[in-house]
Design a protein that fits this description.
Number of domains: 1
CATH class: Alpha Beta
CATH architecture: 3-Layer(aba) Sandwich
Distance between the termini: 49 Å
């Protein structure tokens, strides 16, 4: 079952984020605070949304965290899929695809022109999965990130 996250899901979402970070060998980068996460997901100005995948017993075993962006070329909103993760023990049951199907349905209902995401270049199982669904890499684009001290320094310029 796929459903929209609720405020009482924040501890579960945080646990899934930590599980994803472990899988991606990036656990050392996780510094999230659950209260701040709750405010940004369910506060007065939500910045992101979450879909939860549950197994047959109603246990959360996966999630998709996404937010809106905008395509100037299309003149329409889009969705950026920040994270898609299904716990390893729950894989191969169609939950990853079900999360993406629900996200596509939301995007179409909201008149979005596209859905985009990034995948680590070593994550061959995910790359193969996305390509099996018809997704294509955008190799001509290079992702840039500004964070931490460089971001603070630019703000002070």
């Amino acid at each position: 079952m796929i459903r929209a996250a609720r405020p009482d899901d924040v501890p579960t979402i945080a646990a899934l984020i930590r599980d994803l970070a472990e899988y991606e060998h990036l656990a050392h980068e996780v510094v999230l605070d659950e209260a701040v996460l709750a405010e940004h997901l369910f506060g007065t100005r939500p910045y992101a949304e979450v879909l939860i995948a549950e197994d047959d017993d109603g246990q959360a075993v996966g999630f998709a965290l996404f937010f809106h962006n905008f395509s100037t070329f299309l003149g329409r909103p889009g969705i950026y899929l920040e994270d898609l993760f299904v716990r390893p023990e729950a894989r191969s049951h169609g939950l990853g695809k079900a999360l993406l199907v629900e996200l596509v349905r939301l995007a179409q209902a909201r008149e979005c022109g596209r859905i985009e995401w990034a995948v680590l270049d070593w994550n061959e199982p995910s790359i193969a999965f996305y390509q099996s669904l018809g997704a294509a890499p955008k190799d001509e684009w290079v992702l840039y990130r500004l964070t931490g001290e460089p971001m603070d320094a630019l703000a002070d310029a």
